[in-house]
Write a structure and sequence with these properties.
The complex is a heterodimer of chains A (about 190) and B (about 300). Helix content of chain A is about 45%, strand content about 10%. With about 190 residues, chain A is of the alpha/beta class. Chain A has a five-stranded parallel sheet with strand order 2-1-3-4-5, covered by helices on one side. With about 300 residues, chain B is of the alpha+beta class. Classes of the chains: A alpha/beta (about 190), B alpha+beta (about 300). Chains A and B meet through helix 4, helix 5 and strand 6 of A and strand 9, strand 15, strand 16, strand 17 and helix 5 of B. Strand 6 of chain A pairs antiparallel with strand 16 of chain B, so a sheet runs across the interface.
Amino acid sequence: MSNLASIPVLMERLRVAVHAKDAPRRTALGKVVAEAGHVVVGADDTADVVLVDGDGPPGETRPVVALGGADDDVSGVLSADADADQIDAAIRAVAAGLVVRLPGAREQEAGFGAMRETLGHALLTPRELEVLAALAEGLTNKAVARRLDISLHTVKFHVESLFRKLGARTRTEAVAKASERRRHETITL
Amino acid sequence: MPDQPELLAQFSNALATRAEAAKNTVVAIRLAHERHITGMLWHSGVVVVSEQSLPHRDEFELVAPGGAVFSAKLAGRDPSTNIAILRPADAIAAPSIVAGEARTGAIALAIGADGTGGASARLGLVNLAGPEWHSSHGGLIDRRIVLDVRLAGREEGGPVFDATGGTLGMSTFGPRGQVIVIPTATIERVVPQLLKDGHIARGWLGVALQPVAVPDALRETADQSSGLMVMSVVEGGPAAQAGILAGDIILSVDGTSAHRLRKIARHFGADSVGRKAELRLIRSGAVIAVQTTIAERHAA
């Protein structure tokens, strides 16, 4: 018997509400939470911790773990592309009343900066964004080809191009990096 | 050369006197987990805060000079200039503010709130004093002022003084932890608008856009290699009324190419409200023009 196992918060199945902007992301985060042995509850149900993608809903009184959020008020802050182990560790830490921050958080933060004059790095094409959305839902290349009505060869071509442009090695990484990019680049007019 | 210890002592005393007096210029804004950020007393009823570090809620607790605790309400926030203002429930005596002059190489004294009614101080140089610039959120900042001081998170939002006691502006963090100053002139311009409306008027079409590469097949027709793809359209907004659809790729606004982000942002300033705008966009493989009328954006 390990001593650690006797500490309730490390053993416990915590009730976690997941808050994300879109359904695929919510599903993906819910899966991470469930695989870590916790129970995913509805947004308004009693929860020990709320896992939020980006900035949380204002007025949230339960402990929050935010992925890539900027709000200083929340208990836990992780990067937008945090892995499953980090998310699990942060949920348990925050439920135990601790505060979670990234090392050098202040230095890594975007800060109040200047607008870029022009668009820089390799932009994705509309088709690549469609392929990406399908990858985010966990579709296989074959399923992506069927959905977009293109050949398997063309899908592979787009996926390789996505990896190159985003500097990603895996599909999960590509989805995470693209979502991070979208967060920084979305302009509202 | 004779040693002149009195010079150094005078310099040190002068700084300590300034820092002592400056504790009447700051309040601490309490955050969760016994942390705080600094606010700058602007007039007796107005506290200026760094917008990016202010949590999204309506009510706050302030620690005034001397340690008295006040409740305060959010009166407005403008992410485009990083300025938010709080109104304390009771007036807190505020010092008179004289705008300072930022010069590269000049001394700058940055003041923070210590959380118990006192002040903390940081001394450095104006690392860079440059011309006006546009923030990534499209706001106009009157001067580029970078300091070579280290600043703790709890000190962000405090005033920065020049050697004559003039106020250069409010300290805040730029990219990669760089310490920059939101100039007094910008605060003077924005605070009255925030007090009146709670936000800064900006032109609005009601679309969320993401930069995309124009597909190869359309580059020649479009005559440019990038555009802004419409990701979502706000129901009932000007873009929706003009028939703009998610998936459209905007190439230009009134002749300004969509990859000139700053120019586009400037195009949607306060004076743009009510103006007609012509958008050139790609829809189902063809380039078309759409007329729309710019409305006013509400809330952040």
